[in-house]
Write a structure and sequence with these properties.
By secondary structure, the chain is mainly alpha-helical. About 55% of the residues lie in helices and about 5% in strands. The chain is built from 19 helices and 6 strands. It has a 3-stranded antiparallel sheet with strand order 1-3-2. It is globular and about 75 Å long.
Length: about 425
């Protein structure tokens, strides 16, 4: 009886600390109707008071939504998709409830992180491609013109691997994960056919390094353990980041039960856009210019020409991108004796302290590519790393109802839209 009374008192106290709908709406700065739309979209939980009518809300959940809430851009469409893969937070995001900072601090490899996201286990020997596929990749890549870019080479590698896999249309979870491993290693080899190869057994990051630097003979292109680890840290941080544009496209493809190679090709198509996946390329150019004329002059040139400063700001994070600090720390260890690191630090100081814009992971990724003399650029690192997350999201989507995404088009006559300032009259 005493225990029952105590539980009743605890429930009553919990209800008393909750917010009414009016209080919750005021706290969020929205209308009550908007508040209830958050409930219907799964963003908020609602409980009912003892009177059976009054809606109650957890103040901590309200504050969390307020913290993560951002203003929707004009014309932006948004949707909510449940996922247990990655939780984004300015204090550090999590993979499957594991803080990514801890995964890095504990020295986990990119292969181990892939296994965590995929919820499968592979031995190091599983990350070795068969000789026949290696030969097909090499022959195909060497037939391409030398000027072909890294992203196109990655797409070709995925196509070659797809043609080689007679089981590509198997839609079991295990088959999808196995194909993901093959795709990643095929992309690694596709970049490195013209470079001195590194054995797969040494790990994905070390095998990728020659393909990124290729024919570069500069001293900074020769890796040490710390610089290879910096590359691996970058891949871990970039492996997934929620429903970015490319990942949403991947889930659309998985929803119609596309094969793994087609799913990844969908993602690669999305990051071919200049607004997604290739932002760090501009950082490389900024750092090279800063190394020539000084950091302040290089930033000043950007302002004078009306160009945006790359590697700053983020739609998800208001104050800090936690990935940037983790990767920057790895860069400091990998290039601690390289004088060019001072240029990176100067640019980072200017954008964060003088311009007062938070640096994002693209700034650190561009710095990695510049310090490491990556001829293939940072986009290749982003694409190969993000493939891990794409596979995880595809597998998760396979557990949902097929073809569940079906937006409805609203037909409008073909005339200028007054709400579109970028449209010619």
């Amino acid at each position: 009886m005493a225990n029952s009374r105590q539980e009743h008192n605890q429930r009553a106290e919990s209800r008393s600390q909750r917010l009414t709908a009016s209080e919750a709406a005021a706290r969020l700065g929205v209308k009550r109707s908007t508040l209830y739309s958050y409930v219907s979209r799964g963003l908020l939980d609602r409980s009912v008071a003892l009177d059976g009518r009054t809606s109650l809300f957890d103040p901590a959940q309200i504050d969390g939504l307020r913290t993560n809430h951002r203003r929707t851009a004009r014309g932006e469409l948004s949707t909510v998709i449940s996922s247990s893969i990655t939780k984004l937070d300015e204090e550090g995001h999590r993979y499957r409830e594991h803080p990514v900072a801890e995964l890095i601090g504990n020295g986990l490899s990119i292969e181990a992180v892939a296994d965590l996201l995929w919820q499968h286990h592979h031995d190091r020997s599983n990350w070795v491609l068969e000789a026949g596929l290696r030969s097909d990749l090499r022959r195909t890549q060497l037939s391409l013109a030398p000027a072909i870019g890294a992203l196109d080479r990655l797409r070709v590698s995925v196509s070659v691997a797809s043609a080689d896999d007679v089981l590509r249309n198997a839609h079991s979870e295990g088959a999808f994960v196995e194909a993901g491993r093959i795709i990643i290693m095929s992309m690694v080899h596709g970049l490195g056919v013209s470079a001195k190869a590194t054995r797969d057994e040494h790990g994905v990051a070390r095998a990728l390094w020659p393909g990124l630097t290729k024919s570069s003979r500069k001293r900074g292109a020769r890796p040490n353990e710390s610089s290879v680890r910096a590359l691996e840290v970058a891949m871990i941080l970039l492996a997934d980041h929620g429903l970015a544009t490319s990942t949403f496209g991947v889930r659309l493809a998985a929803s119609v039960r596309a094969d793994p190679y087609s799913v990844v090709s969908t993602g690669l198509g999305s990051i071919g856009g200049v607004l997604h996946g290739s932002a760090a390329d501009s950082v490389v150019r900024l750092l090279a210019r800063a190394d020539e004329i000084g950091a302040e002059l290089a930033i000043g040139e950007r302002f004078a020409s009306g160009e945006r400063i790359p590697g700053v700001g983020h739609k998800v994070y208001r104050t800090v991108d936690p990935r940037e600090a983790l990767l920057f720390s790895a860069l400091e260890r990998g290039w601690q004796s390289d004088p060019r690191l001072d240029t990176v630090k100067q640019i980072r100081h200017l954008v964060t302290d003088r311009i007062e814009r938070p640096a994002n992971v693209d700034l650190a990724l561009g710095a990695l590519a510049w310090l490491g003399h990556f001829e293939s650029g940072p986009t290749a690192v982003f694409a190969i790393a993000r493939t891990i997350g794409w596979v995880a999201h595809a597998v998760e989507e396979m557990g949902e109802i097929p073809v569940r995404f079906r937006p409805v088009a609203r037909y409008v006559p073909n005339h200028p839209d007054p709400d579109r300032p970028d449209q010619d009259p």
